[in-house]
Fold these 4 entries.
Entry 1:
Amino acid sequence: MTVGRVKCLLVLTFSLFSRMIFAQGEPSTQVEPPKSFDADEVIFGHVLDAHEFHFFSFHDGNGKEHQAIVPLPVILYSPQRGFSAFMSSRFEDGVESYKGYSLITVGKLKQLGDKYHIGQIVPVKDDDSIDESVKVYDLSLTRNVVQMIIALALLVWVMVSIAKRYQRGEGVNSAPKGSQSLLEPVIIFIKDEVAKPNLGSRYQKYLPYLLTVFFFILINNLVGLIPGTANVTGNIAFTLILAAISFVVILFSSNKHYWGHIVNPPVPHGIKPILIPVEILGIFTKPFALMIRLFANMIAGHIIIICLVSLIFIFGALNTAIGWGFAPLSVGFVIFIYFIEILVAFLQAYIFANLTAVFIGQAFEGSHDDGHHEDKVIV
């Protein structure tokens, strides 16, 4: 809770500060800083989805800017123009259009308004104006999609390789080695501290799902901390799908006792008209809480890090000496927040899996006595 409040406070502070630096006001006698550095473009370019992996930019001896990027394929379908496929490098950072399409950048968005969004591909005419008569369906492999595929492949490879080692007898009658010794304590922790306390005797049925959710979120969290990669878990569409899957699992795990407590709660009759809508609303607030909690925590940390780095260039635009003087302090804070984000990566994966187990366990409401009776018989 404290970490979340600190994050929100820092995000608000740096956002207001960057707005004050780059706000357009009345002409003054002071020298305006150069506009070569756009904080909005850097921040939004980092946290939003894109059609390329951007690692860094540099200028050569002639002052020409070069960018280290990995372009991704752009796949478009238009009923008027048909299919189009090309690499995102054709757009040249949104400056040029290609095959009648253009990329919306931060600079273009400020001119076009809120009707469009950053990274959107729009059809254009010969004069580069947007062609409203053409409809486009974007089927491209963006960096979020590519990184999710990489994370999924990494998850399957790690789990299958470890499972094969157990099948060969390694780590069964002896101490686990290598990657087994790294993951086995985590798996046992999820089983003993998440699945069993919340699901009781039915934990084995849901343990594969809880482990999959935990490790999939964890891998995406950790990969997203690598500079130049995508912040997948900071994308609300990603957390929405995860929450929707958990929502389906919760509903299919419910029983008549669970729904009976919702439509006919055991309270006085005068309270039921008030409590029943609240209980029905609670069915949807549970997955909503899963979605917002993961999204907000992961995107906040990335914004804080990029804001701290951006402050070096903001102060440097005001005065070079101030920029160099502030750099060590900014880098120190970045390293500190970075280590916190590593902790948050594990923590948020655990919280999502744990809350999912809690909500599934609540769907067993009314049948807990049977589960406890079975446990007593076993004992």
Entry 2:
Amino acid sequence: MKTIGIIGGSGLYEIEGLEHVENIAVDTPWGEPSDELVSCVLDDTKLVFLPRHGRGHKLLPSEINYRANIHAMKQIGVEWIISVSAVGSMKERIAPGHIVIPNQFIDNTKSRISTFFGNGIVAHVSMADPVCNSLSNILFQASLDEGATVHMGGTYICIEGPQFSSRAESDLYRRWGVDVIGMTNMPEAKLAREAEICYSTLALSTDYDCWHEANEYVSVGDIIKILTQNVTMAKKIIKRAVTMIQTERKCNCINALENSIITSHDVISADARDKLKILIKEYIK
């Protein structure tokens, strides 16, 4: 049975047809994830949902324990992660209510730990193509099939938050060629790559940020209104997409760590080996 992780809001697991729903508390070498994982079965697929900000949205983007979240998914056997994220649009053509499947990221965060490695073991994985193309194509096709207005590709800039951008920042990001702006997909995507999990984002456009002449400023109330509509569509897309994912992975995500660990094996401490064993067991004996 294939196992697919969904990271997003706490309401995403309210999908018709889910069976064997149970909450699972997972402890990781990096502490506890944002909340208990919700494990369930949809047809022949195991789904594992994780509310990124915790139930009730109690964690700031910078307070999320990203390493624990991704490691918990790895521990429970997840091989694909669909990240559902609210974003602001930086392009006129991406209107509120539209969906974007980004294929590039700019990490503009400042205080987040973005790797499982360090403390005596060094690895450099490639992030040239930071999402799984196979999974992204599936999300795009599922979005089309469900009648969503969807844009394939584009750059997602991740800012630290929790404040929204200033007008000067918003204008700068547009000059960089950014398509959408959010606060949560980094270091999530980097850690998923280190964990050799296929990762792709279903970005839900909720507003035009503050660059647009129609937006005097970004309003949480307006965002929630559009997001509620988007989540309804996101659940339909997820339900369709999981049936399209093949059991056997054939992408490069499955061996992202191969040839990436640069530290001599004989100097890696027993503690480091134990902490990273789920990630490195194929490469460090």
Entry 3:
Amino acid sequence: MSSRSARRIAWVAVFLILATVPFTGGKFGTYLATRVLLLGMFAIGYDLLLGQTGLLSFGQGAFYAVGAYGLGLFSMNVTSNPLVAVAVGVAVAAAVACVIGFFCVRSTEVYFSMLTLAFGMMIFALVWNARDITGGDDGLIGIPRAPIRLGGFQIPIARGDEFYFFVLAWFALALWVAARIRHSPFGLVLAGIRENAVRTQFAGVPVRRYRLAVFVISGAFAGLAGSLEAMLESSARPTMAHWTHSAEPMLVGLLGGIGTLTGPLVGSLVFIAMREIIQRFTENWMLAFGIVLLLIIGAFRGGIVGTLAQVWERRRARDAPAAPGPLAPGAGAKGEASSWET
């Protein structure tokens, strides 16, 4: 069996396990699993920016919030059709990312990171102060979760288990799109920019355009996750745009493994599970949570998935049969025919 077939079978098994969560995890388990998928989508888009292109952004929470508020305002004032509302939230987030990215991609390294942080906090301040539109610090309350209308059919998503499958479908689509991007010529150019942007530009590649394109794509992924969270919580909050929220996909990537497809899902699961467990045992959960995160990241330098992959490769290399070395002079004279004599 080829490695590609093995990966496909593994992903089918993962999605089959995920599909059983509403039947085995109860309401709270389904809710937590939904949060894992949303954070996983957020981290998948962020990994295209950091893991694939090498751009460290501190402002992705802004596009998460823009997607949430875009869906909320559209659902409450125009139509509550979930598919249309999600599409609007993603489109608005991508448009804002295009405007902000136009200014950010002109800089590199720490200057790029600081610009994204500045723009992200500008979005946070705008959402917080535009009370007549966004609700200010109260946020948007009462975002509807209407059924999906396809012709004469209606698919309800009001219950937690129904909405979980809606999110799972979007997660599968996001994962497929990310995989296609990573293995496309576009993704190879992004990897070249990550390794050496100067050489890539000397080869005739418009580096800024590619950086802007992946910045917009990452913003669209963030907008998708934000739109779906707004439907999950029936609200959109200004804290979604805060820089602390932008740090979550980065921590998830470090936990799961930067530059991998499975890393965001594994990292999201570990991140949310640890946070829920630690909150139950101490009031100073943020301190304990930070210490545990540091210990895990220090122990798994390549993330959980990256470290396991390295261990697997080392084991395969150790167990592989050694290649036959060159035949020593005169070896065929001791009763064993040399290879060219047989």
Entry 4:
Amino acid sequence: MTRPVAGSVVAILGFVIALAGCGGHDRPTAHVLYAGSLVNLMERQIGPGFAHASGDGYQGYGAASRAIANAIKADVKTGDVFVAASPSVNDTLTGRANGTWVRWYASFGTAPLVLAYSPSSRYADDLRTRRWVDVLTEPGIRVGITDPVLDPKGKLTVTALDAAQRAYGLPRTFASSVRDEASVFPEEDLLGRLQAGQLDVGFFYTSEAVPAHLRTVPLGRVHEAATYTVTVLERAADATAGIAFVRYLLTAARPALAAGGVQVQTPTLHGDRAAVPAALRTLLAG
């Protein structure tokens, strides 16, 4: 298993973006904590786009959604905005017992789960011509997943394998066998492992696969997807910049999201409407 160093690289890159063009003067900066599946979109498209359009700075940090939520609760990681890959992650930050970090959030898009493969894999031709569930049981195939405990994608992958077992009438050992044989990596590391040819296949969202130009196969009878949400965290250090970033994400960034593999939806409010900043209320349905 690799060390989760990629998140640090993302944080550094975001810091560099935040400083670019500031001319040595302090300026409002949106500190955005986001699901690692959005690294390419956030750091190459949305973060720089926001900084250019608003004049504010941007600093991003990407990792597994639940891992970020745990770090927020433990006061290990701070930010103004939190973008998660599952609505349920917000529940772990809601209420007094959880620090009341989240009082509302908006869902704004989905990204289907797909199986991506390395073009150099000896199983590449099989994945193009055979059922993916059959290829995953081949001896020696190197499968990569993320941690089901810390990452919604890892949890969704387990759900997808269980669903495939039922949908395709496979042996009862199919799902557990694939899980047991798979290598588990931090979300921010899995993509690099596949691209380096260290894995044959891995489970990804289209929001990762499209920007990275991965070769993918759909999951056939299985239909699982990430649901992306965003909120401005309570007690944000720079709530004004955070609000500006969320407004940009839900409006001007929609074409970039769509081009990057996110199925953009009308932003829908969950939670306490009275807690939503006034500048965002008109953007949220529900």
